[in-house]
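Render this sequence as a predicted structure.
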Amino acid sequence: MVVKTVETRASRDRWSKTVTQAPPPLLPHPDPDQVDETGASKWAKIAHPAQCEPSGKWSTWLFQGGRGTGKTRAGAEWLASRAEATPNGIFAIVAATEHDLREVMIEGPAGLHFLPGREHPKYESSRRRLLWKNGAIAYGFSAEQPERLRGPQFMAAWADEFCTWKKPHDVLSNLRLGLRLGQDPRLLITTTPKPMQALRKLREEISCVMTQAATSANAGNLAPSFIDGLQALYGGTRLAQQELDGVLVDGAGVLFKTEDFASTRCEPPAVFERVVVAIDPPAGLNGSACGIVVAGRVREKARVANAINARTKGKEWVAYVLADRSCQGATPLARARPRSPGRDPARMGERGGGGGAGVRGGENRRRGQPGRRDGAPDTPYCRRPVHGRTGACHQG
């Protein structure tokens, strides 16, 4: 490194030491794998399929991937391309924290400020915004302060690491309410998945499209020993599925996995020998959801042979889960008298041959809630308390 000596008045008069300083660091030479001969970006050619914007009509693009799949690069390229193509456009970038906003999304190796072959927008850290030469502006926000998204409006937004947000619902709703400029406002969410309800709801939205990639899809841009080392340590585990394969796995300790439900879905019989409504009320003022599940029982030998599910073949009795009417935050009276007849625990058991209800007894005794019969007068109905240390099961 060349060091130059700056001669000041103090040094000339010999009453102070000379001041030495190093020149500013040189910017790295353009990578030929990233830019072409003219210096333009080659992103459209080198991006893997999950990093490419989906076609068709959608309002939210969810890029779900493992560690190191290029989620940040994909998000930065997507927003930068829109900013460069939209003079005076207004955009938003949302990170989990203010530190992530600057160090990852803006000034990180794959951030908006240093994309190869693209304009390097001016970053005003005091105002948390990026300025392009065509007048486009991207404002930065932290998911730690969802209320700051009230008021501003945007044409597009990029949100990073959605699953690390402490208040994903509040941030996402405020952000979407601000996407109201332009002809087709869109939102890109990049994240490594976690088993959380907010992500499951997002994946189920009709207007949401998803791309998914494992860490191996971007192996050419990672250290050679990175993937092999982690696979040797965590290969075949739930952690590897989530963090390396980018798969939404079930939470630790769950009794039933998602694939268990998917593999047992089938058409239920027309008539059941018995239908049961199981109610598991929460304990305490801040308890969890009240579980209300409807199940039907049928003798397998009575069913038509070609309609028998392969997984239940040879079983004398088979139970079918007909409905899940669990609710959150409802009072005992609201659960007993729901707003719609379809959620009436008593009437949900009228299908087939009569009904019954299994109710965990401990919580109702503490609340002082007596048993009550809300079914139709001609419907056989019984109420039986059940008890259990780790769960409740009603056998009728």
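Summary. The mean pLDDT is 79. The first strand starts at residue 4 and ends at 6.
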